[in-house]
Amino acid sequence: xxxxxxxxxxxxxxxxxxxxxxxxxxxxxxxxxxxxxxxxxxxxxxxxxxxxxxxxxxxxxxxxxxxxxxxxxxxxxxxxxxxxxxxxxxxxxxxxxxxxxxxxxxxxxxxxxxxxxxxxxxxxxxxxxxxxxxxxxxxxxxxxxxxxxxxxxxxxxxxxxxxxxxxxxxxxxxxxxxxxxxxxxxxxxxxxxxxxxxxxxxxxxxxxxxxxxxxxxxxxxxxxxxxxxxxxxxxxxxxxxxxxxxxxxxxxxxxxxxxxxxxxxxxxxxxxxxxxxxxxxxxxxxxxxxxxxxxxxxxxxxxxxxxxxxxxxxxxxxxxxxxxxxxxxxxxxxxxxxxxxxxxxxxxxxxxxxxxxxxxxxxxxxxxxxxxxxxxxxxxxxxxxxxxxxxx
Length: 392
Prior knowledge:
Blueprint: E1 5-10, H1 16-28, E2 32-37, H2 47-54, H3 72-79, E3 82-88, H4 90-98, H5 104-110, E4 116-120, H6 124-128, H7 130-141, E5 145-146, E6 150-153, E7 159-163, H8 167-178, E8 187-192, E9 197-198, E10 204-205, H9 212-223, E11 227-232, E12 244-247, H10 251-261, E13 267-270, E14 277-279, E15 298-300, H11 304-309, E16 316-323, H12 327-338, E17 342-347, H13 348-351, E18 356-363, E19 366-374, H14 375-388
Parallel strand pairs: 1-2, 1-3, 3-4, 4-5, 8-11, 8-13, 11-12, 13-16, 16-17
Antiparallel strand pairs: 6-7, 9-10, 14-15, 17-18, 18-19
């Protein structure tokens, strides 16, 4: 990410309480955040709260004496790589659409020379009002990025469209806006997480995969503009909302989902830790404990990656290998056996369940190490590698 200074505008609305968490998450992601608030916003959340979270003084007044030249609308907008308004009220959206500038935030938005992103938040009737819809269409035509809104229960007790997106989703969309869209127009099918192979009604065979790397790769692909279909085994993670997510349990279900969606895909990324075996005969009822030993017959699961790689006109296939020893030898052996253009290898002891990792990329040109970093950083580097090598 080569741009990281944001001006965060906050307007009047109950969703302003979410802006505190948004600031926290943006700062955690490495952005610097300068907050500017309308007078109405100060009735819902205090500048002191936002100052503590951002580490910077909060601006609320066009005539703030802290700015020596008396032009905060110029100074703040020129320093920003993007301006984000969250929440953006119906009133403020109307101002933007009609070029009004009667306070600090509206003035600096009008005076900007950087991208503008807004997250609408209002009652459902206000959102559906023809005037608001006309204003939104005008802003889209003007090149403003509209983030949301979402549908759900509102503070007034009504249910419908108009909720501000949650901070996690806004953080994702802001990150997306800074990424070069190297994969725009490309369709990616990927698998992530573990699989669960039932033994009986309550027991099963699974593994310790958390799905974190797969979900990070999904996010990185979306940031580069790709359309992503995520086939996910059972995890405790929330999938990036822009992806089409298909939830499965077993390897057979994952295989079926891949077969149904692989047509027309440009890239297939097999991150999931698929169980190699399943029980030959699943018991419908719970197997009762006894003093006797229990023998289970295990049979191989289908090799999903090998199937896709062997198609008549396969997508660009990326495999993963988590090994406990001899990583380089086993990973390259797997890549050659399945005729993969790229394979990502790591040591299971360092990767499973952790928030960071270090990986090796294996292709026809040799081994390319990516040093230890958090999994989203590694995922971004991996997707850049795939795109920049001309694989697609």
